[in-house]
Amino acid sequence: MSSKTRVRLTPRERLGRGLKYSTMGPVDVTRGTLGLGVDSVRSSASWVSDRYRRSKVAGELRAEVAAAQEIVAGLPEAIAKARKPRRRRRPLLLAGLGVALVAGGAVTFSILRRSAQPDPSPLPPSVEVNPRP
Fold first, then answer.
1. Dihedral of CA 104/108/111/114: which sign?
2. What does the alpha-carbon distance between residue 61 and residue 55 come to, in Å, rounded to a whole number?
């Protein structure tokens, strides 16, 4: 049993075969020419779509680079704004809080010290409280 495989010809091979043989010549020449035309149209369409895709990507890249350049251009100004001396409100506020904290600590210390001392006796120091019989 023999298997018969049919070999498909490319348009170029078909055109060459059509020009070579006279019997199938006109048919092969026509099919080869049409095939070459279709292949070239397909190739051109692929090339155009690749170019379009690349130009679109390039345009997006240009837009992102421009945005990054704007950010970098504004960076010195932002740094200068951040380094400007602020008003002296905050140091005055901190100094006020410090004074209040020290005063509160002094008051607390004096209250605790007084509560730790015993109450003074109304009796004179030479009199004993409990005489022994």
1. negative
2. 10
pTM above 0.85, yes or no: no
Distances, alpha carbon 86 to alpha carbons 8, 13, 20, 74, 97, in Å = 83, 83, 93, 21, 19
Cα distance between residue 14 and residue 38, in whole Å: 14
pLDDT digit string, tens, across residues 5-59: 777 888 888 777 777 776 666 777 788 888 888 888 889 988 888 888 888 888 8
User: Is the alpha carbon torsion for 52, 55, 61, 66 positive or negative?
Assistant: negative
Q: Taking a C-beta distance cutoff of 8 angstroms, is the pair 49, 25 a contact?
A: no
Q: Which residues contact 17 (CB under 8 A, 6 or more apart)?
A: 9, 24, 28, 32
| Ranges of each domain in the chain | 55-84, 85-115
